[in-house]
Amino acid sequence: MPAKPGKCFLVGAGPGDLGLVTLRAKQLVEQINALLVEKARQGKAVVRLKGGDPFVFGRGAEEAKALTAAGIQFEIVPGITSAIAAAAYAGIPVTNREQNSHVTFFTGHEDVTKTENAIDYDALIKLGGTQVMLMGVERLDAITHEMLARGSRSDLPVALVRWGTTARQKTIVGTLANIAERVRASGFEAPAIAIFGDVVSLRNELTWFEDRPLFGKRIVVTRTRRQAGALSSELRTLGAGVIELPTIRIAPPTNLREFGELVQDAHSYDWIVFTSPNGVEAFFEIFFKLYDDAREIGGAKIAAIGPATAQRVKDFHLYVDIQPEEFVAEAILREFEKLGEIENLKVLIARAERARDLLPKGLAGMGAIVDEAFAYRTVPETADVTGARRRFVEEGADLITFTSSSTVENFLDLKLPWPAGMKVASIGPITSATARERGLTVDVEAKQHDIPGLVSAIRQFFGS
Length: 464
Known about the structure:
The chain has helices spanning 23-39, 60-69, 82-89, 121-127, 140-149, 179-186, 203-206, 228-237, 256-264, 277-290, 307-314, 329-339, 358-365, 388-395, 405-413, 429-437, 451-461, and strands at 7-12, 45-50, 73-77, 103-107, 130-134, 157-162, 170-175, 192-196, 218-221, 241-244, 248-251, 271-274, 301-304, 346-352, 369-380, 399-402, 423-426, 444-445. The chain is of the alpha/beta class. It folds into 4 domains: 7-80, Tetrapyrrole methylase, N-terminal domain (Cobalt-precorrin-4 Transmethylase, domain 1, 3-Layer(aba) Sandwich); 84-207, 2-Layer Sandwich (Methyltransferase, Cobalt-precorrin-4 Transmethylase, Domain 2); 218-247 and 381-461, 3-Layer(aba) Sandwich (Rossmann fold); 251-379, Rossmann fold (3-Layer(aba) Sandwich). Helix 15 (405-413) links the parallel strand 16 and strand 17. Helix 9 crosses helix 10 (277-290), helix 12 packs parallel to helix 13 (358-365) and helix 15 packs parallel to helix 16. The protein is elongated.
């Protein structure tokens, strides 16, 4: 038996939008592995992640009582309930000074035909204001009939919001007299909330979430798990539903010792060329294990392909001497040609294994003494810990994004069924060429070959 019992965290995860997960919830989820190690000798640490808020029709109180009875410590982490968030994302404030000053939440799970009903509809209607019903879409006919029978006005505005705060959000608006029929006719199903009250009319002026340029578009991101965040975040901000389906992961180079020796001798080179942020990170991870001072890099000048690569170098407080406007190896070669004579200059290229050999061959052709430092390799991502592949197969997608040739190759090697009508977006000409070689049609190609350029091209493609 452990010397000390563990602790349970009842955490509200919000209604669906990742941006609505609280900082405390993120902290607990990110720390869980460390907590498990720390608590292993004492007991267990458990995060009970619940949709919305644990104490708003979430049965959190029942679980907390059970923990108390068992003598187990617990902590409540409030979440954002869909009762407020889904309404807000539909452009409906649950309170408004000009129309009402109170809001009532109730559950629609109860059968309104029961002799003893926990919901006092007479009191609910007399109270007025805004009423928000969680669950109970399947009983909407009976609930609206009951409200009308108890004296609620037939023209009372009503809205139903399905999959609120997500890219699958759908909103139906009507009145108490016709909303059930509209829901039936549209095939509208749970999960959804219903909002009853005059505040629903404000949706005409306050709609914002469903007006975003990529709202409703399902877009697949195939970058590595570590790198997917930047692209996914920008797409979600524009309203897209993102499926992160990484097809590659970054692994150490095959010969790590050889790479380390080249990094150790970096001070002996005239130029160091970085072709990607991954190369920069792998280089300096080794460099700062060998040296305590960035000045140990000596007098080597630095060239970088693309702003993201250059920025990663600058993060280490080093100056980038060459950063061509185009984000391809050919542009680096043109910049070196402008320098004039580079014969016998020593150049170290930090790059991925199995990358194009255009750059080393081109520089060697100008007379430079070139060494290739294979900093990392991309390997197929075999794990699917989030179930993204299943979701992709079941739901399909409108667009798939490729940010490198390896993402193309490895996605196609998964042999997943291609959803009808799914388009292809490429970050640049090299990636596009690989896609075409594998039989794909490239519908979108970024003019600026980086993540902002890709997002801009996708917006333009969808006409926003």
